[in-house]
Amino acid sequence: MITAGIDCGAKNTKTVILKDGKIIGKGMVFTGFEQSEAVKASLEMALKDAGITAQDLSHIGGTGSGAKSIQEADVKVNDIKAMSMAAHYFFPHSRTVADVGAEEGRAAKCDEKGNVVDFAINEKCAAGAGAFIEAMGRALETPLTEMGELALSSDKAIAMNAQCTIFAESEVVGLIHAKTAKKDISKAIHDAMASRIVSMIRRIGVNPDIVMIGGVAYNSGFVSALHRELAVEKIYVPEDPEFGAAVGAAVVAAVDGQ
Amino acid sequence: MPEEKKPEFWRWLETNWVNPDIKWEDAQIITAGIDVGSVSSQALVMTDGEIYAYGNMRTGSDSPDSARSALKFALEKTTLPQEKIHYCIGTGYGRVNVPMADRSVTEIACHARGANFIYGPQVRTVLDVGGQDIKAIRCDDKGKVTNFLMNDKCAAGTGRGMEVFSDLLSVPIGDVGDRSFQIDKEPIAVSSTCVVYAKSEATGLLRKGLDTNEVLAAYCSAMADRIYSLLERVGVEPEFAITGGMAKNRGVIDRLKKKMGIEPMKTKWDTQLAGAVGAALFGYALTKKGKGSGN
Asked: Whole-prediction pTM value?
């Protein structure tokens, strides 16, 4: 059976094609103003990547903050379900999964089948989402893709006082004026953000194995900060973590669609 | 009354003013209060406890410079030389960086004292919505602080948030209030007031078919909710007065008024001046007691 999972996020829209439990195609586009256009474009891209047509799909699962705009989907998958199924798909031993996207952070506790036991969400405050590091990258005049590596090259621990992203920007500018090294500022930024995600994870309990998905998981500096803060052996990150929720949606579509 | 200066696209107007009925040469004690906030700075000069002149402008990246230029701006229309000022007090977020200040006083104390002056001694609860924080202050008939609550952790509901939003929707900040009432039906308040999310919130509402004025209304309403929750915690005792730049935004204030069921007090003075007024008054009291400089 071939299914598709579409995750319409705040920043990017991702589609994954799943054939008998194997990923055979992927597509990602910038969400922009017209969510339904982004959904169409990412689906087309993924179908092309897989070398199949829409007729070959048995079911389509839709998830993400823009899930309502996914008219193509016949199976609606909520964000938490998608993330825990994704964690289970990649790492069947996972019990805790963190999904940190551009504008939301979520943590879910799951059982050995990938079912959700408990969860916590932050969708109110950018200080606990990818937008925080993006904004700080702008203040540091450093591309987002280099922020993590930069943080890894520092061994200093500078505390950031500001919680709010808007105020933290001024604090970063202040640190720049005080001639603080860029790498040390970058580490402080990742540490601050990691401590907020950790406090969210602690609300549902820290149960290994811990998996992280979402766009922020590409950031090795952040994963390392999270690792340090959580004091666990390892944090499991799948290849292409940003497609995590889409994979979860495709898995659910295959199960529920039957 | 104040003359408007430099009307930029979405920024609020910088103003300075001098009282034509006062001759500084006749004054016994001349004091200044300089309030260097995170977004705006005010310098205000008092002659014997009366407002003589003031300047209200945007804070630059450097606090000492902002204090200097605000005072220069305040004195621009007067013949008063700066060295004739007997005592100067700095307040606000950048109060430790006011080079000409003889001492500094916290903005909480200054706002309560200032509100007592510009609104009258009946005021018991002062709400100050500044550029980067919200303060709810309870005070007595002398303008002395009895209790206060402050949110300086989150930019949502502050003036900075409103600036970002007005810029995002290309609506001059002075028009936001009026335009937020040019609607057929009051929309539901936006659920997330995070300033960083303003863009996706606005896009989401426009996607749903709301027009710009309705989006403004939804945002003003959410800001009123946030401010109200802080006031609820400190407890509102009438009379109630609002200081800071947000007091000029009826989109937020009228909605807040409706929630509270209390009519805020009115003043002829610029509400952004309260902190500087309080600082100048503290300077006046100190000098009168002989504790000022040069005595």
From this structure: 0.79
